[in-house]
Amino acid sequence: DNYFQADFAPVGYLFHFGGAISVFNTDLIESFNIYQSAYGPEFGGVTGGVFDITLREPKKDRFRSTFDVSIFQAGALFEGPITENQSFYLSGRISYLDLFLGDQLPEEDGVKIEQFPKYSDYQGKYVWKVSNGNNFTFQFNGASDTAQIEISEDSEEIATDPDVAGTFYNSTAMHEQAIVWDSDINSRLTTKTLLSHRRANNVGEFGGVGDIKVESQDVMLKHQSDYVLNDAHTVVLGGQFARANVDLDLNLQLPPCGELDVECFVTGAEQLSSNERFDVSSYRAYIKDNWYVTDRLTLYPGFALHGENYLDKWFLEPRLAMEYSLSERTLLTAGFGQYQQSPDYLESDAVFGNPALKYSVAYHGQIGIQRDFANGWDVKSELYYKSFDDLVTSDEQTRYSNDGAGYAYGLDTLIRKNMTEKLSGWAAVSLSEARREDKRTGEVIVFDHDQPVNVSLVGNYEFNPTWSLGAKLWVHSGSPYTPVLGATEDPDIEGFYRPQYGKINSDRFPAYHRLDLRLNRTFSRKKDNTTTAYFELLNVLGTENGSGYDYNADYTERTLVPQLEGIFSLGIKATF
After folding, report:
1. What are 207-225's pLDDT values in tens digits?
2. Does residue 572 contact residue 533 with C-beta atoms inside 8 Å?
3. Residue 180: other Cβ atoms inside 10 A
């Protein structure tokens, strides 16, 4: 439900293995903004949030190399000037823990790791400052992830869904390139134009469920102009055209499954196949007026028009935002917007889904306050509300339908401390509620990702120029789950039990809490080179934060499945 972009270009995904490690070298990240709700017309196509990342420009003073080697991975960064007005950087990273553990991991409970998870990624940027106000940037990035396990038919891990047994293999890769032209035409008009290309593939084998092979190529042309009309108005005009070519080969024993379903069992489900090649063209245009009503009040009215030829849909979405300065240090904000999101491919496919599905729609509203304090402190707090309609649900006749609705609201507060002397960091506190509704029955349930309380504390303290300590504490409400009340044996499948559930998501796991520490020791800190050793402890407290329950075949016993257990890493980072 979220949109990701870096330096004006779309990004396929941001994290390896769904959230473990960023695909970007952290030394290259200049800043990022997360727009949780009511974002402007320049973003669209999703009903959730937006991650807008800015990667820094290459350093121009001299050529330098940075090497970062730890127990888990190794990476290198090269950057510097080419000529007086040209510079570059090139970064790459690869994991290698699989090389040490590949032959040493024993088979446990019928599960054998054939390929320990491994990943790689790279980024590059070339900047040419042609003249004052004219810059060309060529940027590229890529990432890959691979893992494979074998599950035997007598494994207790699949006792509740025996058709799953077999080889589980997944390989995902993306390669993205973009050319960006920034131009200051005159004192009133600035423009940004992007031409990007992305190639992605995903190959997967999922035991008895089946296999998939997806290959896609995307091309995008995107432009934005900012024109200062007068002292009171700056008009932002933008548009983009995108073309996607997709090859799909799907063979899956997969029943329809949506947010309102308790569980989705593949055992006994029908095997379906879809082999298709299709081209999708999408269009987007937007306008926004930065209207400086007074010295204190600014309004941002705008509209976005977007459409595509796959489901043949067009939408006009209104957006409005406001900023009001109570003082030089205090800012009030507010916003409203309408947003549309297409169903997933499987949900709208003629074989696996329903081609007559509609887009989901959401309405966002938010009000907030931001206050800057002395010594690098600032506080930002936002109250938001989102309503959803036409959410995709499973359907007995059409496989999928638009019979879901819902809402989410909350209060997000960010307290940040920029580095002044020794201490830097931030604290984020989120209080929220999210619900889903089945419009056919009127039943309201807790959303799968509902977390009423979510707290993150991140800090770094420099004891002296040699030693520093970083820490992250993450505490949030336990994830909701649906309790099992009992089970009955399936009359058609011997030894297979169908569970009897309580109300969807009516129970929760224990509260999640995790503490990570990183100790840095700098051995040399000179103008031209720095060497730092570091020691990391993840989940220092060793808490067994549950991600689910494993049941035996007849659901009379259950075992908590923990998430990340306590691990450590050693590494050294050197810049020359």
Report:
1. 999 999 999 999 999 999 9
2. yes
3. 20
